[in-house]
Fold this protein.
Amino acid sequence: MLSVESINVAYGPSQVLRELSLRVNSGEVVCLLGRNGAGKTTAMKAIMGILPLSSGKITLDGVDLGKLPGHEVARQGIGYIPQGRRLFSELTVAQNLEIGMLTRKSPPLVLDRILDIFPRLRERMDQPAQTLSGGEQQMLATARALCLEPKVLLLDEPTEGLQPSMIEAIREVIVQMRRQGVAVLLVEQRIEAVMAVADRVVFIENGRNLETLDAEGLKKDPNVLRRHLGV
Amino acid sequence: MDFGPYLMLATLEGAVLAAVLALMASGLSLVFGVMRVVNVAHGELYMLGAVFAWWVTSFVGGGPAVAFVAALIIAPLIVGALAVLADITILKRLEYDPERTIVATIGLLYIMQQVTLMTYGADARPVVPPFNTRLAIPWLEWADGGLQVFWPWGLSITSYKLFVIVAAVVVLLGIRLMMTRSRIGLLMRASQLDSETAQAFGIPVERIYALVFGIGAALAALAGVLIVPIQQAHYLMGGDALLLSFIVVIIGGLGSLGGTIVAALLIGLSDGIISVFFSPTLAKIIATILVALVLVFRPQGLFGGRAR
Ligand SMILES: Nc1ncnc2c1ncn2[C@@H]1O[C@H](COP(=O)(O)OP(=O)(O)O)[C@@H](O)[C@H]1O
Ligand SMILES: [Mg+2]
């Protein structure tokens, strides 16, 4: 279980997250929702140890992530699919995946299994990541995160700018991960995509918790999405 | 002597300079490429390599060859370790901020220079080359209706100078293989391309930086060790070397190893040839004009990639 308890995070003098809390159980998909600039990406970076906490606590199965050096966080089993994909652009597909495999020293068969999910990557192993199409780049970013056999998967706007077939592929991966007991934290702007997978939604505004609803509550009152997101 | 043999001689002398310069400048370029910081103390690391080579060869017995091999190994290791220490204690704390790193390495430059002056002194001291046979170079000429080999008087190079060229080629190939083929090279390139994401995938970026800074320093020190049998060790020798390295990396493109090597060849060879046929001053003037032209028309360098 990933647990974020009352964290405060700032970029230099400007505070972005204020007493933010959330929880993701294994086998559960939690959607983090909020308008642009609400602090969703910042929350993910704080979980990954990229940004330091001014106060509060982040734990994964009882391990205090905030106390670990930055590079140790992912090794606890957190796969990160950053906003904008952030591939190692000049490295090949194979090298990008190798970095994911090295994070937790995954056994080689993991890679085979992942390439079965994304057969198009298998055909492009020696191609530099920057020469892939947008959809293929998103596949690679997803595959790279799956390479570390994560207990927790963080996806930051994974469907941004993708075609419907790719969006469906991403959704399938999320559902499959949930079935395998992975805790999934998803930032997603498209309401129908949220409705399709979310077990719970956490709304934030100006870096603060606004409201948390489970799937039932969401179905009863779908307008809450529109109200909080202003769409 | 005819023009041809003369040109050959100048080219060989230039190639020695190019070799030493390529080693040193690729250290600078590697550090900038991966860490995005400019190490102004790089020339002093070269000087320290030369000075440590003198220390080691004066205290190790067993003849010049053994002593020199010892220097070749020990001096870059010590200088590399010092650089790692500087990285951990200073640069890391500055969070590798580009401007503050420049100021900090200027400080390091003076500390290293003055400590060397206080301990080693102001003398220039030679190191005996491990071997130094004169090798005459044959030349071909048309005579009596056929090609004939002859040995022009004065056309020769020492075996040591040839060794410097070969050593530089071997080391640079090694660096290239490390960057493109090895696992540590992969981690270095990932850290270079996106340090934040690299860390989010378990790469200990700070340790990678310390290692890269150490390797860059060791390359400068190695260049210093290789040059002392030709040029003597002196506490002020780092300044000119730093200037030439900057010229090379600006022309080649800071951060591009291939570009650095091509530019080192360009500067080294033209320096050798122009110095022999005209004057060393003209060689420096031309190098400076070349830098100005590159800065005006192609600021990223001849082989530099796009800015990040
Ligand atoms: N590197 C940064 N430095 C300073 N402020 C930042 C930085 N990145 C984001 N911010 C600010 O933090 C706030 C939250 O940004 P972000 O987490 O990216 O929002 P979201 O992902 O919800 O759209 C915004 O106001 C943004 O301007
Ligand atoms: Mg965002």
About this structure: Residues 265 and 297 of chain B are 21 Å apart (CA to CA). Chain B touches chain A through 17 residues (CB under 8 Å). The beta strands of chain B are 134-136, 139-143, 146-150, 156-158. The first helix of chain B runs from residue 3 to 35.
